[in-house]
Specification:
Helices cover 49% and strands 8% of the residues. By secondary structure, the chain is of the alpha/beta class. It has a 5-stranded parallel β-sheet.
């Protein structure tokens, strides 16, 4: 019976040749898609690390989208010039402490920084949507250069149960890159085109934005504790790499802040974690309330970033105290 179903040697060779050709074509597509990632890269933090022009920076910036305008247009260059420091901004929209810890782990393997500025947002600690789901996001994986260390970390997160197995599989196989319909488009957050816009306050827009960022509200304290523990591990990694740490909350419009669920509880829990390390939360949430400082419901526009740089960031990066303005900027 076994002889009746055995594949003749010539046919086995044909099958093997077919599989070899197929594998070769796939590897060629994998290599081509990887090359395209480097040609069209911009915002992805792993791309920025892989193409960084320095091995050491004075400051590394991590966080979600609220920190991204600090690198829009020529802002980062002007900030470096004003403060007399070098900066690499690896913030990305919609990412929490788990994603940022993977970024930090990749960064410290080949680079160093004297200090870390972590721009913290409570939404990023409230849901797996901004942590494991972002590591598994096909759109982000399609823009993430392959790195063996990152692959190992994704696999480790899958083994621990924090990440679905399809995330490291997709990353290693390069499937999202090969099938990315926007592969030739620049990896640039489209909100950069709004940077010079002056926002007209809208309670409806603010409420919709909050609902998007907090899909589970603040009703699960175990989730918050889980991601605060992950953030603690991120701070361990930064301090082990010799970085001083600044944990910052950037200015937000009061109309937006009023709708944030459980914000006081989040602040208290975060401050307790930081106090155990001898760190303080630098909370500038209320410092800029004029709508002209924002380009949408919660992101600083050009005027806001310029005022923030002058009165808060430049002094901080110079290790000086920010300008005290009783909740307002000098421009107000």
């Amino acid at each position: 019976m076994d002889e009746a179903i055995a594949v003749p040697p010539p046919r086995r060779r044909t099958i093997l040749q077919f599989l070899t050709i197929g594998l070769g074509l796939y590897l060629a597509l994998w290599a081509l898609s990887e090359a395209i990632v480097y040609r069209s890269g911009h915002d992805n933090p792993f791309f920025k690390i892989a193409t960084a022009d320095r091995t050491h920076y004075d400051w590394l910036i991590l966080g979600a989208s609220h920190a991204m305008p600090l690198a829009f247009d020529d802002v980062e260059t002007r900030l470096e010039s004003s403060a007399g420091v070098s900066i690499i901004n690896l913030a990305l929209q919609g990412v929490g402490p788990l994603y940022n810890d993977v970024v930090l782990e990749r960064f410290v393997r080949d680079h160093s920084a004297s200090g870390l500025v972590y721009v913290v947002d409570s939404f990023a600690f409230r849901s797996a949507q901004w942590n494991a789901d972002r590591l598994a996001d096909a759109d982000l994986l399609a823009r993430t250069p392959f790195d063996l260390g990152v692959a190992r970390r994704l696999l480790a997160e899958s083994v621990s149960g924090d990440l679905p197995l399809q995330a490291p599989l997709a990353y290693v196989t390069g499937f999202p890159k090969i099938n990315n319909p926007d592969r030739f488009s620049l990896d640039l957050w489209d909100s950069v085109t709004l940077f010079d816009r002056r926002y007209r306050p809208s309670s409806t827009a603010a409420a919709e934005r909050v609902a998007y960022l907090y899909p589970q509200g603040s009703e699960n304290p175990a989730v918050l504790e889980h991601y605060l523990d992950m953030f603690d591990g991120l701070l361990d990694r930064a301090e082990a790499a010799g970085m001083s740490v600044l944990v910052v909350k950037l200015p937000l419009p009061s109309s937006f802040v009023a709708g944030l669920p459980g914000e006081a509880d989040f602040n208290a829990a975060l401050e307790e974690k930081l106090a155990s390390r001898g760190l303080n939360l630098l909370d500038f949430t209320d410092r800029m309330q004029d709508p002209r400082f924002y380009f949408d419901s919660d992101h600083l526009g050009r005027q806001g970033v310029e005022a923030l740089a002058t009165e808060i960031l430049v002094p901080l990066l110079r290790h000086q105290d920010p300008v005290e303005t009783d909740g307002k900027t000098a421009a107000e």
